[in-house]
Amino acid sequence: MSDAPIAVITDVTDLDVGPARRILEDAGFEVHVLALDADPTIPDAARGAVIALAGYAFLGGEFFDALPALRYIGTASAGIDMVDAAEAAARGVVVQPLVGVATEEVAAHALALLLAVERGVLPAAAAVSAGAWSEAYEAVPRRLSERTLGLFGLGRIGGRLAQLARPLFARVIAHDPYLTAAPAGVDELVDAAALLAASDVLSLHVPLTAETAGVIGASELAALPEGASVVNVSRGELIDSAALIAALDAGSLRGAAVDVLDAEPPAADHPMRTHPRVIVTPHIAYLSERSLEGYEQQPARSAVAWWQAHLAAGAPQT
To answer: Quick one: pLDDT at residue 2?
Structure first.
């Protein structure tokens, strides 16, 4: 029986697990690749794992029960909503999010969605494909230099979007209770009510937590200026999708552009898929050749570094 520490990669959705597996094996780990996104079975050989690299599969109480020696979970995203944080804390398991790998990509994608919905790019292109030309625009675009961009959350991605978008807008404002001074690109920090009241374009940049789930509902959408647009590259569950569709159908919103939905992949009949004033991209805001390298390698490198520090501090291997 091998004395090597055991690591598991919990699922294989989207990312190539080969680089992470090689990094872990080169560091002396016995690695098991699971498919918890499709099959919850954890083989006996993996139950001694001390490290897990998480994907999209939810890691709750049953997972922790099956891996009693687990000490560390590394995620392949800045969010950790795929891990039951309370269970992890109760069992002394470190949960390490992946941050900074795709800040540039996600901010650029948010800007692309913002411009696409404000300029009416997709419906105009579709109308041209169907034979129209100068009559392609259903709604006349508005001048962004006369409008206010509101950022709900101002971490790395929100802050980078502020820098990218600031030359386009009359004002950029933000709400983030953890900041006391406006960073570069942001004209003013405001409370949530003031943000909603002033945002001609509202872009969401907060993690999904118990406090932020459904944070943008019917009353928040109604508080936006008439004709506002909404952009979401964070988590689909931040927005009440039924309320968003209702606001779009009522005409109070110009449009919405999202890279995330409240269920992924969405059902074939999910109303956001086909709504004429919604742009949906398939959770690809993070994507670039460079960021893929980070997503495929950095969680494993961070896990190895943590484990080596753990051992250097005199902690047992299990």
So the answer is: 66
**pLDDT tens digits along 39-95:** 889 999 999 999 999 998 999 999 999 999 999 999 988 889 899 999 999 999 999
Cβ contacts of 277 within 8 Å, gap of 6 or more: 117, 123, 248, 253, 254, 255, 256
Joined tokens for residue 127 = 């109308």
Let me know: does 66 contact 84? Beta carbons within 8 Å. Answer: no
Active-site residue numbers? 235, 264, 283
Q: Work out the number of other CB atoms within 10 angstroms of the CB of residue 258.
A: 26
Residue 280 pairs in a beta bridge with: 258
Contact 173, 199 (CB under 8 A): yes
**92 touches 71 (CB < 8 A):** yes
Residue for token pair 């948010």: 110
HEC string of the chain equals CCCCCEEEECCCCCCCCHHHHHHHHHCCCEEEECCCCCCCCCCHHHCCCCEEEECCCCECHHHHHHCCCCCEEEECCCCCCCECHHHHHHCCCEEECCCCCCHHHHHHHHHHHHHHHHHCHHHHHHHHHCCCCCCCCCCCCCCHHHCEEEEECCCHHHHHHHHHHHHHCCEEEEECCCCCCCCCCCCEECCHHHHHHHCCEEEECCCCCCCCCCCECHHHHHHCCCCEEEEECCCHHHECHHHHHHHHHHCCEEEEEECCCCCCCCCCCCHHHHCCCEEECCCCCCCCHHHHHHHHHHHHHHHHHHHHHHHHCCCCCC
pLDDT digits (tens, 9 = 90+) for 266-285: 999 999 999 999 999 999 99
